[in-house]
Amino acid sequence: MSGRILVSGANGFVGSAVVRALLRHGYPVRALVRAGSDTTSLDGLAIETARGDLLDPPSLERALQGCTGLFHVAADYRLWARDPHAIYRANVRGTHNILAAARRSSVARIVHTSSVATLGFNHDGTPADEATPARLADMVGAYKRSKFLSEALVRRCARAGSDIVIVNPAAPVGPRDRKPTPTGRTILDAARGRMPAYVDTGLCIVHVDDVAEGHVLAYQRGQRGRRYVLGGENLSLRAILQTIAELTHRHGPWLKLPHAAVLPIAHVAEAWARISGNPPTISVAGVKLSRHRMYFSSRQAETELGWYARPAREALADAIQWFRDNGYLR
């Protein structure tokens, strides 16, 4: 498949990496961005731009005209929002709208960006994978629930005959994390020396450019209706913070906090956020999620797609360097 591809959320952190990966593979790209969005991450790229919104179906059909492929990357990635319904509208209703527009526009193949947030956890602590069972009741917070519901919608469409492949990225880090994402915020705070304490949790760290490459390989080689975890290296939060400390020549974390001590702080932070309008520095959903080590296996993507991820230290170093080069560490 070499026809034009539409990328939703193309100006975002993962989306802009996907655009670059598609261009490296020689695909013509059309970027779907909302009017007034910051498109700095797309500057200088040889792409078309289409203005549209996931909640405006006619704009999606216009954007999809002449496209043979769709990468639906756009999502509201917030662990807290004053209005949680906004997250559902973007991630569930938005996914419904763009899939319907793609069907009406006769798009041949779709890659849907889901998340490891939709997967379950293994009680014995071993890495979860695509087959690890999960229920909606297991999902903590609006973001995880919305991604679970949107992926369920995508899988129903695949069973009904649509040619859709699902990718489930872990915790992507790297360049162009402008907002930044929750994981990027943790890296930034640690690089600034503001993370002396930690809780007993873990993350699967993966370079955003490797995630983007996995998207393209899924488009080229993925089986219809299949989902592929795009994870990287499983590390404890303490190990992640220690690595960042080494890369920035700072002292590592020294205070381990029990989850029970952090949860009340998160409730206070969210209460203040509702008053002030500023996002909380710590969220209740984030603390509840940290009770699990969020470790995942990418064996299926490695075996079926030929995908691999570079070491987490390289991903963290690239993220820190980008933050430094763009004035985040002043």
Describe this structure in words.
This protein has 330 residues and is of the alpha/beta class. It has a domain at 5-172 and 204-233 and 295-309: Rossmann fold (3-Layer(aba) Sandwich), CATH 3.40.50.720. The protein has helices spanning 13-24, 57-64, 84-104, 141-159, 182-191, 208-221, 237-248, 259-276, 284-289, 299-305, 312-325, and strands at 5-8, 29-33, 48-51, 69-72, 109-113, 164-169, 171-173, 197-198, 202-207, 227-230, 233-236, 255-256. The strands form three sheets. The chain has a seven-stranded parallel beta sheet with strand order 3-2-1-4-5-6-10, with helices on both faces. A three-stranded mixed beta sheet has the order 7-9-11. Strand 4 (69-72), helix 3 (84-104) and strand 5 (109-113) form a beta-alpha-beta unit. The longest helix has 21 residues, at 84-104. The mean pLDDT is 92.
Helical fraction equals 40-55%
What is the 3D shape? globular
User: What is the third-level CATH name, the topology of the domain at 5-172 and 204-233 and 295-309?
Assistant: Rossmann fold
Please report the distance between the alpha carbons of the first and last residues. 45 Å
Give the second-level CATH assignment, the architecture of the domain at 5-172 and 204-233 and 295-309.
3-Layer(aba) Sandwich
Class from secondary-structure proportions: alpha/beta
Q: Indicate the CATH class of the domain at 5-172 and 204-233 and 295-309.
A: Alpha Beta
Rg computed from alpha carbons, rounded to a whole number of angstroms: 19 Å
CATH-level-4 superfamily name of the domain at 5-172 and 204-233 and 295-309: NAD(P)-binding Rossmann-like Domain
Task: Please report the number of helical segments.
Answer: 11
**Strand percentage:** 5-15%
| Number of strand elements | 12
Elements, N to C (H/E): EHEEHEHEHEEHEEHEEHEHHHH
Flag low-confidence runs: none
Name the strands of the widest sheet in spatial order.
3-2-1-4-5-6-10
How would a crystallographer describe the biggest sheet?
Answer: 7 strands, parallel
Average pLDDT = 92
